[in-house]
Amino acid sequence: MRYTIERILSRQASSQMKDAAAFRFSVAPMMEWTDRFCRLFHRALTREARLYTEMVAAAALVHGPREKLLAFDPQEHPLALQIGGAQPSELSLAARFAEDAGYREINLNVGCPSDRVQNARFGACLMREPNLVGDCVAAMKAQVAIPVTVKCRLGIDEQDTEEALDRLADATVAAGVDALIVHARKAWLEGLSPKENRHIPPLDYPRVYRLKARLPSVPIAINGGISTLAEAKAHLAHLDGVMLGRAAYQNPGLLIEVDWEIFGKEPPVADGMAAARAMRPHLERLLASGIPAHRLTRHMLGLFQGVPGARAYRRILASEARRPGAGPEVLDAALARLSRVEEKLPRDKAA
Ligand SMILES: Cc1cc2nc3c(=O)[nH]c(=O)nc-3n(C[C@H](O)[C@H](O)[C@H](O)COP(=O)(O)O)c2cc1C
Predict the structure, then answer these.
(1) Cα angle vertex 253, ends 79, 296, to 5°?
(2) Is 198 in the pocket of ligand 1 (CB under 6 A)?
(3) Residues of the chain with pLDDT under 70
């Protein structure tokens, strides 16, 4: 452990803050979706939303290609790393690597129900082991100055959600957790796939509100099934934060409203067209480094929902951007279909 003055000062600052405002709006960690290219795109839409990485296994950070797994562009900040694991010593080492790499938060996954994760005894099955989760949080807190947070479910399988969530929360709060993000439904570890576990177990938002009423000084954010900023604002009347997953990814245009609607700040771009154009230099960079344009453009397919020409935009991006050597001209071509259709509309009507 390094005991530099900067480290001690930043540790003091972070403990003074318990900064609930930092968690006010975030985009959820999503495997295969919120990779670094997706996050660059989301950052063009909102400066204020907190972004999360896909889950990275702590063991992979300790034993695997750490630099590659932790790589991000500083433009992505504020950025949190989500890790999966259940061994305090491994997690504390992983947390140290994450802090050194420049992440602003470490989030422990206590919500993933996949078989692979269960076999490794982490993710949602940790809802049964609140004391172990507390030990994991304590071990990470002892290593780093940045916030350590937990993303969990209401409970799993036959657990009573009143008891299971309180026990998990109490153990992590005792360990100094900086915020809890609660996916407001149970996970069923037997019989449901991860995808089914995102919509079949019923949502129970009032359960999360009760948790906040019981632990008023702990920053608590809610996640699950929130699809509009109006819904997000309604939750913010009860809680410190909202986290959107599928809605933010599938309809990223809603992120353009976040800075104004949630934070009262000017958005970075006026509209989807400006956000898409802001991706051009990134596409040039990808092309120059031999990375297919598709790695970025695949995350942009949902941008123009409901706009005339959106289908042609999606078709061009989805097919052309996969071609070897494809670059920003593919995006230009896709965007041209939108504007051409938009421009054509009044003339068509006039005719
Ligand atoms: C494709 C996909 C991948 C996901 N991967 C993760 C993950 O790595 N870590 C995690 O905590 N949750 C993961 N989730 C769950 C989301 O973070 C979120 O909790 C869930 O989708 C419910 O929120 P929503 O209704 O706003 O989408 C994933 C969800 C999706 C759709």
Answers:
(1) 60
(2) yes
(3) 1-18, 339-351
